[in-house]
Give the backbone structure.
Amino acid sequence: MITNPAIIAELKSLNAQNGGLLKPEQVVEAARDPGSPLHDQFQWDDTAAAEAYRIQQARGLLRVCVQWIGEGVNRHQAPVFVNLTSDRYESKGYRTTVSVLSDEQLRAQMLEDALTELNRFRRKYHDLAELAQLFAAFDAITKQSVA
């Protein structure tokens, strides 16, 4: 997360200058100025940036691969690959979802990651009273998982 007040102030200023709807292209344009607090948040070497972008595209590809599993009414699409938190810091890779679900420790990590994502969702949308029932159900599931 970025908490740098100069960066946040610059982004808020850009947002106001653009009628309250800030586009990524506008952020990049403002960041081109070496004096901008945003400048150091970007890779300006085009060769390095191109390679980083291709790696990001590969991540995106791995995230959207799905396959059909199950039979009859239980048949559904499931992700082919998963990126566990532990893998993000150690090997920075993806595992097949099937292999994760069949390993007790990896499955526990996947569950922990899922609960963390649900908590992020909750923090992001906690002001929406319409989701109160969903959050109550989430609390019940969290208590079961921890017990």
Q: What stands out?
A: The two ends are 30 Å apart (CA to CA). Residues 104-125 form the longest helix (22 residues).
